[in-house]
Structures are given as structure tokens and as C-alpha cells.
Amino acid sequence: MKKRRDSILISCTNLVLPILLTLGLYIIIHGHLSPGGGFQGGVLIAGAVALIYIGYGFKKVKSGIASNTFRIAEDLGALGFIILAFIGLIGSGVFFGNILEKGTPGELFSSGSIFLMNFAVGFKVFAGISFLIIIMLSNLNKKGEE
């Protein structure tokens, strides 16, 4: 017997999902101006995978993106972060040195390279946590839960 998903749960998922994604991206973008940054925003965005599972079930999560894609994306995020560090070394003579012009303090583009590093960290954390969530959900699904 197939379990039916509750329409209220699906409606709440559809309502909260764009808010979760927008808030996570906002925290990554504004990480150098306020508490937060790449890690916190990446975890929020990865929470979307868990939310899709709650609302739609494992089949929907598995059909969306293959878990191997998240492993590759995590590697790309780490590689981007390391490349930025070496570009800083080449451009300024200091590992993780600033390569971009600093703007006016308090404005969005005021942190130089830290802005780009927040994106790299956010992408890596999003991919890594999403991969872990899919692994845990796969184990649940093997035990017959959904």
C-alpha cells in the first residue's frame, strides 16, 4: 500500500522552500557585513534537500539530483577556494591576499576577495551537507521508511 502525501505538508514545503533558498543566498552574499557567511548560508541552502524529502519523499529527492553530483560540486567549491588563495598569493604576495579593490566599508562590495571566498565556502558547504543528507535518506529508504 502506497502512502499518500499530505497536501498541507506539500503546500508548506512549496511556501518555505523559496524563502529558505533566498535567505541562504542572502546570508552568503552579506556574510562580510553581518554575522553569517558561506558556512551558515550553505547549510541553509542544503536544508532545502531535507525539506524536499519531508514534503515529497525520497523519490523526489533522488530524481532531482544524483548524489554523485553533490560530491563533484563539493570538490569544485573547495578547488575554487584554494584557487582564490593562490591567486591572492600571486597577485599580492600573500596567501589569501586581497586581489580585488576594497569599496566603502558597509557596502555590499566592500570586502574585496572575501566576497568571492564566501561564495566558494557556501557552495562547498551546500554540496557537502546535501550529500550527507542524501546518504542518510538513502539508508532510511533501505530500511523501508519514507
Task: Describe the structure in your own words.
This protein has 146 residues and is mostly helical. Helices cover 71% and strands 0% of the residues. The chain has 5 helices and no strands. The chain has helices at 7-29, 38-56, 58-64, 67-92, 114-142. Helix 2 packs across helix 3 and helix 2 (38-56) runs parallel beside helix 5 (114-142). It is elongated, with a radius of gyration of 18 Å. The model has no long low-confidence stretch (mean pLDDT 85). InterPro entries: CPA3_antiporter_subunitB, MnhB. Its main location: membrane.
List the helices and strands and how they pair.
Blueprint: H1 7-29, H2 38-56, H3 58-64, H4 67-92, H5 114-142
Helix pairs in contact: 1-2, 2-3, 2-5, 4-5
State the domain count.
1
Number of helices: 5
The chain-level mean pLDDT equals: 85
* Percentage of residues in strands: under 5%
Outline the low-pLDDT stretches. Answer: none
* Gyration radius from CA atoms, angstroms: 18 Å
